[in-house]
Amino acid sequence: ELMQFATMCAKKRKDFRQHEFPLQMKGFCTLCMFDAVTVEGEEAFVLWFTLLFSESHHVKTFADYPGVAFCSRDAAHTVHEVLQIDDNYGYDVQRFFDLC
């Protein structure tokens, strides 16, 4: 997937002006994700997103909460940064972690 993304970025670099490239790519990727969610469904997107952040961080389950996987603080911090939770919603890392 990383190689496919790099190839797509190289192709799109020709389509967008240099000073607009980061913003245009962000918009393009947002539309691609929206298309994937509407075609494959919200649950498929949530599963993909969860797997993306749980691969490098271990999840833990507890008998008292069957079917619920708990992520590490590091994983929650990474999600907080990637989704820009503080900027977009005003939740600092600790407040966001408390919600997780």
Written account of the structure:
The chain is mostly helical. Helix content is 69%, strand content 9%. The chain starts with a helix and ends with a helix. The relative contact order is 0.07.
Largest sheet: 2 strands, antiparallel
Q: Report the structural category.
A: mainly alpha
- Output the radius of gyration: 17 Å
Mean pLDDT: 85
Which helices and strands, and how do they pair?
Layout: H1 2-15, H2 21-40, H3 42-54, E1 60-62, E2 65-70, H4 73-82, H5 85-89, H6 93-99
Antiparallel strand pairs: 1-2
Describe the structure concisely for a colleague.
With 100 residues, the protein is mostly helical.
Entry keywords:
single chain, 100 residues, mainly alpha, two-stranded antiparallel ribbon, 2 strands, 9% strand
